[in-house]
Write a structure and sequence with these properties.
Layout (H helix, E strand, L loop, with lengths): L5 E3 L2 E3 L6 E6 L4 E7 L3 H19 L3 H17 L1 H12 L3 H22 L7 E4 L4 E9 L2 E5 L5 H14 L3 E5 L6 H13 L6 E3 L4 H10 L5 E5 L2 H11 L5 E5 L5 E4 L5 H13 L11 E5 H16 L19 H16 L3 E4 L3 E4 L2 E7 L2 E4 L6 H4 L6 E7 L2 H9 L3 E2 L1 E5 L3 H10 L4 E4 L14 E2 L2 E2 L4 H7 L1 E9 L2
Parallel strand pairs: 7-8, 7-10, 8-9, 10-11, 12-13, 12-20, 13-18, 17-18, 20-21
Antiparallel strand pairs: 1-2, 3-4, 5-6, 6-24, 11-23, 14-17, 15-16, 19-22
Helix pairs in contact: 2-4, 2-6, 3-4, 4-5, 9-10
């Protein structure tokens, strides 16, 4: 059994009240370890450790922070094989995906903010004629909370922690209780990199106990959260009256709009990825596919054929494209939408069944599923399923495509396939999204603002947006004449 502990003040410690919860390997449906179910007392201990480290850490030079964050980035890269295996075991994603995307991106997150903090600057404003000079201080907030989900565990955990500590804050962080392992290993890496004790504290446990204790803590002054919209709303209700700064990166129900004039082969190959990467468990997946009528039948045939070639298997098999879903409850939730589809008159063009993988009979496997729907108002098109399920609809005009794309409560990302430049500009400005990918998907430049609008959240991560979130601007006005 792989049992893990909390990482507080640079040490690995058991929870004070001693509660533990099981940790599952979803690819075989078995418990493989236990993790703390930390309580308010553990969160308080982590907070005190962060508070004690804050004065010294917030006074380190930018080069000292750069060097330590770069070292963390290097050590993540060095331990990539071990971290990728841990991620695949915890999440059920193909090992090949963890190796190619998850862990390299976790390293890049630290490397990016190691460099960015040495370039981050603030403004000065001369009040000409008034004999006054203003300058803006951007000071670290203090102790901040970072809470992350199970779909891209180390990738999203480090996406919050790196800018928070680069900006001079100290952190109380909680990974998802469903995928805690790589967060646990990050503690070892931080010690090896020479991160001072208490700058980062990692507490494990359920959202309703450990997570709730973080968002309720009166002196944790900002919360950076990624997860479900419902949880995001709960966090906002709890933290708003305490005037905490909030960054909420929530769910999505992203349109993938395909016009006849697109580069068809590139579109087709990318659409298989944007539909089913990570078993469709990425908030940026294009789960609602809208295809121009003139190519709809051709696309339908070709897309089904391509998807039928995807291999469902144990995450550790090199040729696996579709691994296990993250948990049994999540598999049940996703499967329930396939049942709903049939009740709503949807037509299953491909997939829809759970799969028994030889040698991993108790794993949580589901076929990549393509469902043709006749209305955007169906539950499949209105609710985030967060699994390997996409819907297909055709459209006649650009106006219709835009109306369909925007007609959901979410507004995270949109994907657009066309070679018509004026159409690209028109639609990009009108789509309800924080990110619009044109003729590509999930191409990421870490300098860009990342996040959504509407029910997809509040605030932006990435680049200087993240450093502005994790600092308090203060205007100092000096009268000198
Ligand atoms: O998210 P949760 P989960 C969506 C997707 C998925 C749904 C639930 O629809 O089905 O969210 O997934 C912690 N106070 N996305 O269960 O419950 C929890 O412990 C403080 C989209 O992962 O929101 C975990 O660490 N924390 C998303 C984190 O919040 C609380 C990616 C996320 O858990 C808490 C993942 C509370 N009261 C899921 N309750 C995206 N945008 O990428 C829970 N948590």
């Amino acid at each position: 059994m792989q049992n893990i502990k909390n990482y507080i003040n640079g040490e690995f410690v058991n929870p004070i009240k001693g509660g533990f919860i099981d940790n599952y390997n979803p690819s075989i449906g078995e418990v493989y370890g236990q993790i703390p179910n930390s309580t308010t007392e553990d969160v308080e201990k982590a907070y005190q450790s962060a508070k004690s480290a804050f004065k010294q850490w917030s006074n380190t030079t930018l080069n000292e922070r750069r060097d330590i964050l770069s070292k963390i980035a290097q050590l993540i890269q060095l331990r990539l094989p071990e971290l990728a295996k841990a991620e695949a075991k915890d999440n059920g994603k193909p090992l090949s995906l963890a190796k190619a995307i998850d862990i390299p991106r976790a390293s890049s997150n630290f490397q990016y903010f190691a460099d960015a903090i040495t370039q981050f600057s603030s403004e000065a404003h001369e009040s000409i004629g008034l004999g006054a000079m203003n300058f803006t201080l951007r000071q670290p907030i203090g102790v901040v909370g970072c809470i992350s989900p199970w779909n891209l565990p180390l990738y999203l955990f480090t996406w919050k922690i790196a800018p928070a500590i680069a900006a001079g804050n100290c952190v109380v962080a909680k990974p998802s209780e469903v995928t805690p392992m790589t967060a646990y290993l990050l503690g070892e890496i931080c010690n090896e990199a020479g991160l001072p004790k208490g700058v980062l504290n990692i507490v494990h446990g359920l959202g309703t106990t450990t997570g709730q204790a973080i968002i309720e803590h009166p002196d944790i002054k900002a919360i950076s959260f990624t997860g479900g919209t419902a949880t995001g709303a709960h966090i906002a209700r709890t933290a708003a009256p305490m005037f905490k700064k909030l960054s909420l990166e929530l769910g999505g129900k992203n349109p993938n709009i395909i016009f006849a004039d697109c580069d068809y082969e590139n579109m087709l190959a990318t659409t298989v990825r944007s539909s089913f990467a990570n078993q469709g468990q990425i908030c940026l997946c294009g789960s609602r596919i809208f295809v121009e009528e003139s190519i709809y039948e051709q696309f339908k045939k070709d897309f089904v054929q391509k998807v039928s070639e995807l291999k469902i298997g144990n995450p550790f098999d090199e040729d696996t494209n579709i691994g296990a879903l993250v948990s049994k409850p999540h598999l049940e939730k996703v499967k329930s939408y396939i049942d709903i589809a049939e009740q709503e008159g949807g037509k299953i063009l491909y997939g829809g069944n759970t799969v028994t993988v030889e040698g991993s009979e108790n794993g949580y496997y589901l076929e990549p599923t393509i469902i043709e729907v006749s209305s955007n108002q169906c539950r499949l098109n209105q609710e985030e399923i967060f699994g390997p399920v996409v819907t297909l609809m055709s459209f006649k005009t650009e106006e219709e495509a835009l109306q369909l794309a925007n007609d959901v409560v979410y507004g995270l990302s949109s994907t657009l396939w066309t070679n018509n430049l004026t159409r690209t500009m028109r639609l990009s400005k009108e789509l309800h999204a924080g990110i619009v990918w044109v003729n590509t998907w999930l191409l990421r430049d870490l300098r860009t603002p990342f996040g959504g609008q509407k029910a997809s959240g509040v605030g932006r991560e990435g680049g200087f947006e993240a450093l502005r979130f994790f600092t308090e601007p203060k205007n100092v006005c000096i009268k000198y004449e």
